[in-house]
Specification:
The complex is a heterodimer of chains A (135) and B (125). Chain A has 135 residues and is mainly alpha-helical. Helices cover 74% and strands 0% of the residues of chain A. Chain B has 125 residues and is an all-alpha fold. In chain B, helix 2 packs across helix 4, helix 3 crosses helix 5 and helix 4 runs antiparallel to helix 5. The chains are: A mainly alpha (135), B mainly alpha (125).
């Protein structure tokens, strides 16, 4: 990806986008992008939530059809991705809230909280699915 | 040419036309969503394998119905605010941007109304 260069504007240094040849991938930038991607995915994922409730309100037949799709392999993959995206966005969102009050901005702290987000969102996802399957 | 100072302009209306309001309500809804999301995820996980009647009974419980409506309304509001930022960041051209923003607003309101209506229909049946 090349940095856009307006033809008529004077030559000024432009900040390049963080994905591309200019910056090497870092944990902090990757987690930031993942926050946005999961957020967008979750926005579309609200359709799963609304679909579930509308099926429930529509009666046993509609609910059975919805449940059949969600229990099929593609539904389970969708739900696994949805649950992890939700829990990741939740954990990283809490990280953002601490930044908003000025805590944890130092680079070592940002890395520590970044690894914590990966670990905690993973553990919570496993816990949710263990609860669904084994309890 | 405006006679207002740059500071006065920024205080009143930034480029997004609403100052810090958007930033603030995104954080308020985020804080509210921390307990609501944990409650929702673990409640639904416990419902795995439940029959239609069991799920129907669960949703019709008043505390559950109220918390579900709170979760749906807050999540869709938070989602609408987030998608707005993404559109403003990445969609170039005022026409395209306005169209995308309108579609996002309509989508979020429609999903929220549909999901809340479904909860109320089950809860008040």
């Amino acid at each position: 990806m090349s940095t856009p260069k307006p033809s008529s504007a004077p030559e000024r240094p432009l900040s390049p986008f963080m994905i591309g040849p200019y910056y090497k991938p870092q944990l902090t930038s990757m987690l930031s992008i993942t926050h946005r991607v999961t957020g967008m995915g979750l926005s579309f994922g609200t359709l799963l939530l609304a679909g579930w409730l509308i099926a429930l309100a529509s009666g046993p037949d509609a609910y059975a059809m919805y449940a059949r799709h969600m229990l099929a392999w593609y539904g389970q993959i969708l739900l696994l991705g949805w649950s992890w995206a939700l829990l990741y966005h939740l954990c990283n969102g809490i990280r953002h809230l601490f930044w908003d009050i000025g805590k944890g901005f130092e680079l070592p702290a940002a890395y520590r909280s970044g690894y914590a987000v990966i670990a905690v969102s993973g553990v919570l996802t496993v816990a949710v699915w263990a609860l669904a399957y084994f309890v | 040419m405006s006679l207002r100072s740059p500071l006065g302009r920024a205080r009143g209306l930034g480029s997004a036309k609403d100052g810090t309001h958007h930033f603030w309500v995104q954080r308020v809804s985020a804080i509210a969503l921390v307990p609501l999301t944990l409650w929702f995820v673990f409640s639904v996980a416990r419902l795995a394998g439940a029959s239609f009647e069991q799920v129907h009974w669960w949703v019709s419980y008043p505390a559950v119905a109220v918390t579900l409506v709170l979760f749906i309304a807050t999540a869709l509001y938070h989602s609408m605010l987030g998608v707005q930022v993404v559109i403003e960041d990445y969609v170039g051209g005022e026409g395209m941007k306005l169209t995308a923003l309108l579609l996002s607003k309509f989508f979020h309101v429609a999903v929220a109304v549909a999901a809340i209506f479904a909860v109320l229909k089950v809860a008040l049946a």
